[in-house]
């Protein structure tokens, strides 16, 4: 077995165990293999080993890879999306995890309209840490903005995403994940048309098990599958 295949098996096993601890079925959690900076050859190895979802954080890098690999897999955009790159996303991604402002949502909606693109699936990124550097809606701002975003045509809001601060002990971010789930619940209870809160994108190599225990439906795992990035 290749190293990537062995790593993938180990991650899948850990997902199954975390799911079992939380009384969830492993099938309710989708593994997004984060392939930023990873070569096409190594991504192909991962696909051969069974990866079906790939995550990239840059539009340009994803374009180059999708051109070669095509879309027998689902591609996820997990990094910040600049407004001048929005026009490229329609042919590339199955899910945008990182919509972090009303202006960006409006731009995606406008571009989709212009292209006659039916609907694009997205998650709203929430900023839950003290760190100034991370992007995303503050929870209160999201609760104010959600109806306005829901009214934009061509968008399907499927849920929320967060990137917690990196803390040495994964236990320390448990409350961040719990807060994201509570926020999704709060939004779900409003019953807004066009907004399902079915997806929670949270958890990376370092903390995906805690995220699964707290309800993650999408975990974004790079290093634990592909090894450390250069
Ligand atoms: C790079 C990245 C990941 C994967 O991080 P690992 O620690 O390598 O698993 C997940 N989510 C986002 C948004 C990323 O940029």
UniProtKB/TrEMBL annotation:
Its cofactor is pyridoxal 5'-phosphate. The keyword Manganese does not apply. The lineage of its organism: Bacteria, Pseudomonadati, Nitrospinota/Tectimicrobiota group, Candidatus Tectimicrobiota. Pyridoxal 5'-phosphate (PLP)-binding protein, which is involved in PLP homeostasis. It comes from the Bacteria. Pfam families: Ala_racemase_N. Belongs to the pyridoxal phosphate-binding protein YggS/PROSC family. Keywords: Pyridoxal phosphate. Signal peptide: none annotated. CDD domains: PLPDE_III_YBL036c_like. This is Pyridoxal phosphate homeostasis protein. InterPro entries: Ala_racemase_N, PLP-binding_barrel, PyrdxlP_homeostasis. The modification N6-(pyridoxal phosphate)lysine is found at residue 36.
């Amino acid at each position: 077995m290749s190293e990537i295949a062995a790593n993938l098996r180990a991650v899948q096993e850990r997902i199954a165990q975390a799911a079992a601890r939380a009384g969830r079925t492993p099938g309710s959690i989708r593994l997004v293999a984060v392939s930023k900076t990873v070569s096409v050859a190594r991504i192909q190895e991962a696909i051969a080993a069974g990866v079906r979802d790939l995550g990239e954080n840059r539009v340009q890098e994803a374009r180059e890879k999708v051109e070669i690999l095509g879309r027998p897999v689902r591609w996820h955009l997990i990094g910040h999306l600049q407004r001048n790159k929005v026009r490229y996303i329609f042919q590339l991604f199955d899910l945008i995890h990182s919509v972090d402002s009303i202006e960006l949502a409006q731009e995606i909606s406008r571009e989709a309209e212009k292209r006659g693109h039916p609907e694009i699936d997205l998650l709203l990124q929430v900023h839950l840490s003290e760190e100034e550097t991370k992007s995303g809606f503050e929870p209160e701002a999201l609760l104010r903005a959600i109806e306005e975003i829901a009214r934009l045509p061509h968008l399907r809001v499927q849920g929320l995403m967060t990137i917690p601060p990196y803390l040495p002990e994964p236990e320390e971010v448990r409350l961040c994940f719990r807060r994201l789930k509570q926020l999704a619940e709060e939004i779900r209870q409003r019953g807004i048309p066009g907004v399902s809160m079915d997806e929670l994108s949270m958890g990376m190599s370092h903390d995906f098990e805690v995220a699964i225990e707290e309800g993650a439906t999408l975990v974004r795992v790079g290093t634990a599958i592909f090894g450390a990035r250069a």
